[in-house]
Write a structure and sequence with these properties.
It is built from 14 helices and two strands, in the order αααααααααααββααα. With 334 residues, it is mostly helical. Helix 3 runs antiparallel to helix 13. InterPro entries: Cyt-d_oxidase_su2 (IPR003317).
């Protein structure tokens, strides 16, 4: 495997990490108005991800930086052509992060409601737009000979891309609800399991439609392998959730998200930005990558530091592995 191909799959791995980890964060944020019946419930929900949400979010920074360094042409075309959607994602992430830190700074209910709304919107917008963006990348967009995007924002909101966005939104909502059931106790745990069951049923149908459409239009042999794994894991996770096997359900939902991302990258390979108007204008792994020297330095850096990051993140989740209860919130308030 040559270095550009290796870094294509490293970038894929980084996006897998981001969508798996920040994906259930988004799901918890979107579930806030659905599961939080009072202030204590909402604080429990936020506290399930409180120690880890910012660490989860750093994966997108590492993925973006790796994309910039390993495939500068891809980065330039993507971030210029998809400027508005990516800007909206950035603003939503900022609003969500600010809300986590500021909602508890004042006691007024109206103050908390405003920030809770920002958490919900700040979670739903990226969950939707990331799916729209990746679906457009797989489908291909109009590019000129200089690899510049020649379409408009409206062109990005096509039926296939919107279906991709709805798929990621529902998948993250289900994943987040399962995570809440894994991390809470009592009535909130039961409501989260019910939400995961209902959202999961819709997710199965929508995700199956999206993967089938992708496979028939752009599928490769490896795409179908990952799509099949995703489908089996999603159905298995939904059934495990219905049986209150929360750890199994969460593990299978994690496999589902990872497999969907890998399926999309497999459908894309060996291109990185297909041109829908003229294949000669497409960006590929070969013509979008950095020099061999740059990729070599990056490879040694990743070999040294990536395992350390994984160990640290795993340790963080181990430290904060216990369930969050209403009693713990009430005790902290006194």
């Amino acid at each position: 495997m040559d270095l550009p191909v290796l870094w294509f799959w490293i970038v894929a791995f980084l996006f897998v990490g981001y969508f798996v980890l920040d994906g259930f964060d988004f799901g918890v944020g979107m579930s806030l108005p659905l599961l939080g019946r009072d202030e204590t419930d909402r604080r429990v929900l936020i506290n399930t991800i409180g120690p880890v949400w910012d660490l989860n979010e750093t994966w997108v920074i590492v993925a973006g930086a790796s994309l910039f360094a390993a495939f500068p042409e891809w980065y330039a075309t993507l971030f210029s052509g998809f400027y508005l959607p990516l800007l909206l994602i950035l603003l939503a992430l900022i609003a969500r992060g600010v809300s986590f830190e500021y909602r508890h700074q004042r006691p007024e209910a109206a103050w908390k409601r405003r920030f809770d709304g920002m958490i919900t919107v700040g979670s739903a917008v990226p969950a939707l737009l990331w799916g729209v963006a990746f679906a457009n990348i797989v489908q291909g967009v109009p590019l000129d000979a200089g690899h510049n995007y020649t379409g408009s924002v409206v062109d990005l909101l096509n039926p296939y891309a919107l279906l991709g966005g709805v798929t990621t939104l529902l998948l993250f909502l289900t994943h987040g609800a399962v995570f809440v059931s894994l991390k809470t106790e009592g009535e909130l745990r039961q409501r989260a399991r019910l939400l995961a069951t209902r959202a999961g049923a819709v997710t199965v149908v929508v995700a199956a439609t999206f993967l089938l459409w992708t496979g028939l239009a752009f599928g490769t042999a490896w795409f179908w392998v990952f799509a099949l794994v995703a489908a089996v894991a999603l159905v298995g996770g939904w059934l495990a959730n219905a049986r209150a096997a929360e750890r199994t359900a969460f593990t299978l939902l994690t496999i589902t998200v990872a497999s969907v991302v890998l399926a999309l990258f497999s459908a894309l390979f060996p291109e990185v930005m297909p041109a829908s108007n003229d294949s000669a204008n497409s960006l590929t792994i070969a013509n979008a990558s950095s020099s061999t020297y740059t990729l070599t330095v990056m490879s040694w850096t990743a070999l040294i530091f990536l395992p350390l990051v994984l160990v640290y993140q795993g340790w963080t989740y181990w430290v904060f592995r216990k369930r969050v209860s209403r009693a713990s919130i009430d005790a902290a308030a006194h």
